[in-house]
Amino acid sequence: MERRQPSTRPLYRRALFLEGKPFRAAGANIYWAGLDQNAENSSVPASVAYPDPFCVKDAFDTAALMGARIVRCHTCGISVGNPLSFEPALGEFNHSALRAVDFAVSQAAAHGIRLIVPLIDNWRYYHGGKHDFTDWLGIGNENEFFTAPKAVVAFKTYVAELLNHTNSITGVRYGSDPTVMVWETGNELMYNGGPPPTAWTEDIARLIKSLAPDHLVMDGTNGVNTAALPIVDVDVYSQHFYPGPSVLDAEIAAGMAAAAGKAFLVGEFGWKAATLAPFLAMAQSNANVSADLYWSLFPHRVDHGFVQHGDSFTLHFPDGDGNPAAVASLRAHAFGMSGEKAPPFPAPTSPAVTMVSDSAGIAWRGAAGAGNYTVQAQRPGSAAWTTVCDGCASDNGTPIPMPGGWSADDAFRVRGLAPDDSVPGPWSPPVSG
């Protein structure tokens, strides 16, 4: 990601640039790709677990299908205070805990997707936050994360250890990996109800630039912190919008960043809102908005159906849990932000039958890009396949009952259809009970 000229003074632009060309994009938040609290998103039976590789690949397959060129991943950078974390305790670093992150980064690279990676969280979420450092150090006020010298040193040690990690799959150091577009100083950071101290942001940004000179730095404040706009080593500013995006507020924030010669993006927004259409139109037409990312994309489960999440903004492709028009709009917008027209739907990937039971029915692991599915059955010893469900089931409708006249002694196979039912994907391998 280009941002600097080879001189001691940076040349700032009002937009992001990639390989010398303006970079505008839309994408998704896939916050869980490095460490997940949705137990059903993993083959490990625990409340917090490393995500199953299938789920991570399925999510990036889906993001790419939706036109994403950018993904924001909290747990690719925030991993402290949990036994499965990169830093489970102060000064203890477990590089094997980053194998899931390594895989997520490799998947992003395989799909031509750039990453935004926050480095710490303001909030007390499962993947860790600023309170972990103050708790470790016996500091009673977590706001001192920004001001207590020993807390600042501890966090800088974490950042350095993370950016110097070498990806076990690609062999590339994180701080040198072009897949990472932006290191974000944190997620929605606050200090005594306001933005972080400017001196702290400047210090962390300088450290990131020393470790990743070809990457961008984004201020982790939610909203444009005018006091931080002059910081030389901060390139990007952002804002989050809930319950839905505000056209006016986004325009104001983007204009403030542009006036300072900095880039602006919408790091999160709730996509289930009446303001979605005017916001997407504004973002696409306003050159000061470099990117926008909805909250948040979830994949198929490893057994059947989708991974469910408890907030109001979970997106499953293609029906959006009853909001298919909004999902279609997000897809068209993502391609439009990149200056392209949304292409026809490709063939879905291959599903996998996971259950054949006379009593419980038939289930399959979903295929990225599928809307409905066709199911066929085959008698033992026969070469003929009979269609028992023709485009009649979706990932929200599995398992399906055992079709009449058939049993678990028979073999079953499944294939997905593109959301407009125009293109079938490959058949799954046949499975019997």
Characterization of this structure:
By secondary structure, this protein is an alpha/beta fold. The chain has two domains: 322 residues, Glycosidases (TIM Barrel), CATH 3.20.20.80; 81 residues, Immunoglobulin-like. It is built from eight helices and 16 strands. The protein is globular and about 75 Å long. The N terminus is likely disordered.
Key attributes of the depicted protein:
alpha/beta, TIM Barrel, 2 domains, eight-stranded parallel beta sheet, 8 helices
What is the strand and helix layout of this fold?
Layout: E1 16-18, E2 21-23, E3 25-29, H1 53-65, E4 70-72, H2 99-110, E5 114-118, H3 130-136, H4 149-163, E6 180-184, H5 198-211, E7 216-218, E8 236-241, H6 247-259, E9 263-269, H7 276-285, E10 289-294, H8 324-337, E11 352-357, E12 361-365, E13 372-378, E14 386-394, E15 411-417, E16 431-432
Helix pairs in contact: 1-2, 4-5, 7-8
